[in-house]
Amino acid sequence: MSTAPVAHGEGIAQPFRRSSRLAIQQQVKKEQIPDAEVLKSRGYLLGRRIAKGTFATVVRAKYYDPKAGGDGLQTPLDLACKIVDESKSKNEDFLEKFLPRELKILKRIKHPNIIQLQGIIRSGCRVFIFMRLAERGDLLSFIRKYGALPEEQSRIWFHQMADAIRYLHRLNIAHRDLKCENVLISESMNIKLSDFGFARTCIDETGMAVMSQTFCGSAAYAAPEIVSGKAYTPKAADLWSLGVLLFIMLNGTMPFDEKHLKKLVKMQLAKQFAFRPEVEKVISLDAIRMVRHLLEPDSNTRINIGEVLQERWLEKMVVANKN
Asked: Which parts of the sequence belong to the Protein kinase domain (predicted)?
């Protein structure tokens, strides 16, 4: 099976060129070749819509290697395509900061538990980001369908998430939007982290660690330092979100179910979360201990990713990651 290359040349400039709103408007007028023709010439065919967000639409797609010939016998590669239309975005931060940052990071990373980038193509004002398809959907849909996971399944998937985060943090990249919707499940029932729209590097040009100010992602998964509006350490914030994900897998509910932000912070700081009695009866003390270490409201004493993978709950884990 062929894999699609990351497109260059007409596909996307290197490095990614930031487009001003005036330049985007001028480009709209110049567009003459339909996107479908541009994509087809590179082997891509778009399908039905999977999801729609604030800044992008995700559709199914297929890739046929143009070099393999047109005998009709080629097995296509099933993909998902994130389509960003710059001409329709009114958010300058997204156009000037988040989108270029996402594309730069996507081209740097490769890990068995991170969704695999297949290609990036620019056509006029639209950017098409092609990724491997996660056939079993996302973790939120899975839990809504099947309920809380058995502890052993939670352990396997959590280990995969943690290993992916360790990989990112070693590259000084923080995800900053870890949530069930961004945890995808492959056909072989392995975890694939996705959506790096809020991801950023954690060091500056001099190699010094930087703090973040942006309120990223969903409040329900955000650490108390983010919800309270303080500058925060992005890696530590990722660990809190991992704790929320683990709690959800084990318990089938959110640890802090409060939409009012001031009340949410109070609950977080007071550690007001609890497992359902029927869950607490059957899960191990080591699993509960892991959740408590991750949902530590003090970011200075919160467990880091290296310590997570050395916890007793995970110490005997042997996971064979498969694409």
From this structure: 44-314
In CATH, the number for domain 137-320 is 1.10.510.10
CA-to-CA distance for 308 and 189, rounded, in angstroms? Answer: 22
Question: Model's pTM, two decimal places?
Answer: 0.84
C-alpha distances (whole Å) from 158 to each of 89, 223, 242, 255, 304 are 35, 18, 8, 16, 15
Domain boundaries, given as residue ranges, for the chain: 35-132, 137-320
Instruction: Just list the catalytic residues.
Output: 177
> What burial letters (b/e) apply to 49-68, b meaning 16+ CB within 10 Å?
ebeeeebbebbebbbbbeee
CA-based nearest residue to 255, from 240, 235, 238 = 240
Structure tokens at 307: 């310590």
pLDDT band with cut points at 50, 70 and 90 for residue 7 = very low
Instruction: Write the class of the CATH domain 35-132.
Output: alpha beta
| Per-residue confidence band for 36, with pLDDT thresholds at 50, 70 and 90 | confident
Give the pLDDT band (50/70/90) at residue 24: very low
What mean pLDDT is predicted for residues 27-41?
Answer: 66
Going by their DSSP bridges, the two strands 173-174 and 200-201 should be labelled as antiparallel
Query: In Å, how far from its chain's centre is CA 279?
Result: 28
| Predicted local distance difference test score (pLDDT) of residue 88 | 74
